[in-house]
Amino acid sequence: MSDLTRREAIAGSGAALTLAMLGAGTAQAARSDENERRVVVLPVTPDRVAVVARVHSGEVLTASQGSERRSRTAEKNVAVLGLAVAKSARSRVVVEVAGASRTLDVDTRVEALRASELRVVNKRVALTNKDKPNKLATAGAVVVDARLQHPIKRMIKAAKKDEVDLEAVSGYRSFEYQESLYARYERRDGRKAADTYSARAGHSEHQLGLAIDVRGADALHELEESFKDTPTGKWVAAHAHEFGFVVRYQEGQEKTTGYRAEPWHLRYVGDDVARFLHERRDIKTLEELFDLPAAPGY
């Protein structure tokens, strides 16, 4: 969530990203050609995974584990779904697409979760004070998970080309910093009000290093819902997905996320998931996308 006063970035350590890919049936860490079918399974919570498929538009992705079975149709050559698996364990997920089937191993134990770019944290799913990005890097004025460094720089450069001066103003925050930040807001506004705009320690996406807060260089309507109506806010809404980001807390989703709208708060989910969410305008939260329970309160 946003730091409504002073922005800070604190360094830390964590675990590396691993990808399980489907295609030739082998594990690899390189991106496939745009026209090649590819499936990636990544942990989202200790008992749920995301299945992300790069397939042809209109094709149906189906995944199953035990009695759990989910399907979703591809949009713009991408399909994304959430699937329940054994908690904090290794599981085998059967993935079917275009008549082909593969069984993939997936790990939802703590080290695998820490490495996942799709890990979800909300008011029901918490981090510990030991959860930190594996590698941090500087992107402009903020420190983030190193995987965000180039997407942020490319996004700022693209905005500049469109005559929009975009700035990232808040990135990674440690558990301890979020704890002190929330306590400050609680003292000022009371717990009930603070919970609508600030995360308690262990519940902030900023601790993942996968979220940033942005503004225009003119700071017009900074950290206000009306930011969405500024030239910068409109550009972000239209183009953030091109760089792997989504607006995490959208208007009208308070009963799902527990937070008021934050058009400046961007969560990195990677190109495929961001593109899918941009096309599926009916799915507005990661909770809906991955079939997680709503998290309006702690």
Automatic annotation (TrEMBL):
InterPro entries: DD-CPase-like (IPR052179), TAT_signal (IPR006311), VanY-like_core_dom (IPR003709), VanY/YodJ_core_dom (IPR058193), Zn_M74/Hedgehog-like (IPR009045). Gene3D superfamilies: 3.30.1380.10. Keywords: Signal. PROSITE patterns: TAT (PS51318). The keyword Signal applies. Residues 1-29 form the signal peptide. Pfam families: VanY. It comes from the Bacteria. PANTHER family: D-ALANYL-D-ALANINE CARBOXYPEPTIDASE (PTHR34385), PEPTIDOGLYCAN L-ALANYL-D-GLUTAMATE ENDOPEPTIDASE CWLK (PTHR34385:SF1). This is D-alanyl-D-alanine carboxypeptidase-like core domain-containing protein.
